[in-house]
Amino acid sequence: xxxxxxxxxxxxxxxxxxxxxxxxxxxxxxxxxxxxxxxxxxxxxxxxxxxxxxxxxxxxxxxxxxxxxxxxxxxxxxxxxxxxxxxxxxxxxxxxxxxxxxxxxxxxxxxxxxxxxxxxxxxxxxxxxxxxxxxxxxxxxxxxxxxxxxxxxxxxxxxxxxxxxxxxxxxxxxxxxxxxxxxxxxxxxxxxxxxxxxxxxxxxxxxxxxxxxxxxxxxxxxxxxxxxxxxxxxxxxxxxxxxxxxxxxxxxxxxxxxxxxxxxxxxxxxxxxxxxxxxxxxxxxxxx
Length: 288
Ligand code: BGC
Fold this sequence. Notes:
By secondary structure, this protein is α/β, with parallel strands linked by helices. Helices cover 35% and strands 23% of the residues. Strand 10 and strand 11 form a beta hairpin. Residues 258-288 have low confidence and may be disordered. The chain binds beta-D-glucopyranose. Beta-D-glucopyranose is lined by residues 65-67, 75, 77-78, 104-106, 130, 132, 134, 136, 150, 152, 162.
């Protein structure tokens, strides 16, 4: 399928139409500056502009820099705090007039790398760490994703890990690649101690400069920059949309007589929405 994938970041919103079978971009890659302040409405309008610029109409997959449970954002570490409890999927769908499917940005990048990049055919535990304004993380066990793990928020050296060794921290503290690499290596050791991954794939801005700090990394696991580099988020988002469409079709094609009691309260989508909004009322904003 050819689906628009979008990577929503703190500084830019990037998108392209993706051939989900091959992982190739089949349109130009468009980037629009993220509006400031990046409020839900302003970002949704920018997404609409991006879709129009590509002359696209159809389903849209969006990677988003926060935890996203059933289409609702629950955290806002590096984005405007007004996103917390925002039904992102619903908002984007309403404003753009296209069905939007939203997931965490690091999960999206990981999905792409597992299908077309370094994680392809890799069994065991694979971690994807994206190094940008924050530290994004995704864990795969035998190719299956554990969604929304927030390992950039581990405490390291009395600090939140992403404050200590994200790419934004490197720039803010004006660290050389070597000095920053030593910090990042500490982070990887912490992850290795906790999760024992077989492979760690690095994505995001700092993964492009991997050779400048590779000599500082000495964890046991193999560490490698992502093959799909800065298009991973776009490709993975499109793949997620395709997957969600397939799941919805499966749910909708179930014969009515076969429905269980709980299902008969509504179709899969409605049940999902209820769960999400019920959950969203209870959740407290993330502090970091
Ligand atoms: C957020 C994650 C996100 C990462 C990369 C972190 O601050 O908490 O959800 O994946 O930044 O954007």
